[in-house]
């Protein structure tokens, strides 16, 4: 794909969205779908952004083109995503960020994870009978809402690495919210699939459904004056205007006043929210250094473990894409998930052995379980035990298998490389599709607290590490990743997908770094995932051809939808090569 067409198409999409389809009625029907399909792969020389919606990618491109940094572009991109992909991320959610500063030669990771309200406790998701609530009974309403963190995260990275004024970065989202944007086919399908659940909250019902109760159709032009007004207040008063005062009051009132499922969020939770700089987790594999987000995300450690164990298990010598290769990747994943279940939680509440879990000696010991000399050998008899990395964990119980939950079409991935060489990989989320379904002032509130273990204790009565506690951050699987070679960034990548994120990212890394696939090929490749034993094979793809071979090795196989939303930029001597996952509506824009 040539550069000119990347820019041409994204500009055309913006022209359609903000001028060609101005709507006097917020729900004007059938005003067009935004034109041609987005550009989902492309090359550029100076800078690039990949995001989950063409209008968001274009907003980032425009900021980079006027001299903004990657941090500046991220602010604009996330605020547009909160408008055009509202089911996935936004002001009411949180995220994790990796930022490489070319000037400083330094990688930082920022934890913008939502926190449990100070007043929340281990019984948050237990019913009157003391048993864990059904998933959606916990999700919908105020109970699941953690302290929103996205704006504090954007403020922090802008403070550290921004170049343009913060207000300038709000402008694209304000303009689009005022003018309206065409509802995408994916958003329309997700609203329709939601049905009554999304009508729990009056503001959400009025926004996502027409007056006659029908879900918005693809192409309908949606204006969001409330969102524009929220952003204007932030432009005037800074991010503090969100964390105290009328906006904060409204968030708290909606959460605590929920008739069905009230939550415990308080003004003080918002006022006290802090972004935390964490140590990146980095380790070598296949001649590269893989760097990711540490706890409370399990993503970085699990991705590193999978790559390192697969290398030790002899993956490099096996035919790419063969059943034997997938056996090594699958067993490496099972080992990583066993450690994830046992060891990962908020490090402020549980002594997570983050360094021990990626230490070379520990990984070499774990790799012995893979039987690397006979990679065609049988599958490890389950269940796979967690390892014993260095560092005492205290006296907490193993985590239950809480990561096996279903996948939902939420969360968003942004990757950016600016003209100065700064690189960002950012995964943002409101957790479930449409989060808690509560909408305040034009944005949805997260349900991130359902990433905690619902059960507070295991069968033996011992406390679970990822149980709910006041002020704690729920364990995540988000895995924004930057890969380095000889100290230079060569790839930025990440994906949505709940606990499947780990496999999506690990697989794309293997495709690109080990099997030599270009980013578009690596992202489009059929998925095969193994978290807890059975192999999940992506429905409607060639992955199902491997079912007999994997069954012969001893696996149970399941053919299922695997809805990743990968985004990647490869940085090489010949420039930038980017791709957005063809399973979603993302786009590449650059110059
Ligand atoms: O933090 C996490 O791991 C989840 N809340 C992410 C949710 C997600 O990716 C939804 N799935 N598509």
Map the helices and strands.
Layout (H helix, E strand, L loop, with lengths): L2 H18 L20 E4 L3 E4 L2 H12 L4 H15 L9 E8 L4 E7 L22 H5 L10 H12 L4 H14 L1 E2 L2 H10 L7 H7 L12 E2 L2 H13 L2 H4 L2 H11 L10 H6 L3 E3 L2 E5 L2 E5 L6 H14 L10 H21 L10 H4 L2 H8 L44 E6 L5 E7 L9 E2 L2 E2 L36 E5 L2 E7 L6 H14 L4 H6 L3 E3 L4 E4 L8 H6 L4 E4 L6 E6 L2 E6 L6 E4 L1
This protein binds 6-diazenyl-5-OXO-L-norleucine (DON).
Structure description:
With 591 residues, the protein is an alpha+beta fold. Helices cover 34% and strands 16% of the residues. It has one domain (1-298, 408-527, 562-591): Gamma-glutamyltranspeptidase, small (S) subunit (Glutamine Phosphoribosylpyrophosphate, subunit 1, domain 1, 4-Layer Sandwich), CATH 3.60.20.40. It contains 19 helices and 21 strands. A hairpin with a 4-residue loop joins strand 16 and strand 17 (535-538). The chain starts with a helix and ends with a strand. The relative contact order is 0.18. Mean pLDDT is 90; it is low at 1-35 and 392-406. The structure holds 6-diazenyl-5-OXO-L-norleucine.
